[in-house]
Amino acid sequence: MSPVPSGSPSSDRQLPPVIALRNITRTYKMGDSEVHALAGVSLVIERGEFVAIMGASGSGKSTMMNIIGCLDVPSSGRYWLDGVDVRGLDETRLARVRNRKIGFVFQSFNLIPRTSALANIELPMLYAGVHAKERRARALAALDLVGLSSRAGHMPSEMSGGQQQRVAVARALVTNPALILADEPTGNLDTHASDEVMNVFESLNRAGRTVVLITHEPDIAERTKRTVRLRDGLIISDENTTRGPRRAEMGAAR
């Protein structure tokens, strides 16, 4: 199975949004006080979009990422992930949906030391019970997509930071998720390595992948197609990065 299947635009239009948030709030208890991390956020991200979510510290962007990634649950509101209403799912079912629908890319790569690039990429498929022969074929195909087929046997310590992050992107692809969710994926990289990683994300999006980046770097956000900015737990702007302002889809979740 190819890690990046192609699909016709007409078939995509018949499918639900990858992300649909409606009036999401998240409140945390801090001693006797409450912190309102999200204060009623609505957002729709359609299949095939390439979106940056930005905001200063305390804006709510990390909380939004955790909710989108099914790592946290909202205090109120509703969230559909690829058409699945995640409200009310117990931890086991939530973990199953998360593992099946989302490919994560983290700032710190999260590769297993003393384990080859190929084995790192195979790991999520091992947990999913994929047969060894198919695991290897899909992992090699994913490595080729990120331009690292020659590094299959290399350990993380034998690769640059940019190469390690590209391996992490390949690992995120192999379960064929509906969404690639990347948390500050260039935060630990120099300019050249950041450019390499962003080239990979752009290529994946051109192939039809839905990619959401959490970033504080304006130059990284400019390479996406849409930028959503948060402040004080609310969306303050939602713009097409290359084509000017777009209307924030408040309350438009289906």
Terminal Cα separation, in Å? 30 Å
What's the Cα radius of gyration? 18 Å
* Residues in β-strands, percent: 25-35%
Q: Label the structural class.
A: alpha/beta
Number of E-type strands: 11
Mean pLDDT: 89
Tally the helices.
8
Which regions have little confidence, pLDDT < 50, spanning 5+ residues? 1-11, 243-254
Main sheet properties: 7 strands, mixed
Order of helices and strands: HEEEHEEHEHHHEHEHEEE
Helical fraction equals 25-40%
Report on the architecture of this protein:
The chain is α/β, with parallel strands linked by helices. It is about 30% helix and about 25% strand. It contains 8 helices and 11 strands. Strands 6-7-8-3-9-10-11 form a 7-stranded mixed beta sheet, with helices on both faces. The protein has a 4-stranded antiparallel beta sheet with strand order 2-1-4-5, with helices on one face. The radius of gyration is 18 Å and the shape is globular. The two termini are about 30 Å apart.
Tags for this model:
254 residues, 7-stranded mixed sheet, 4-stranded antiparallel sheet, disordered N terminus, alpha/beta, 8 helices
Would you kindly provide a brief summary of this structure?
By secondary structure, the protein is α/β, with parallel strands linked by helices.
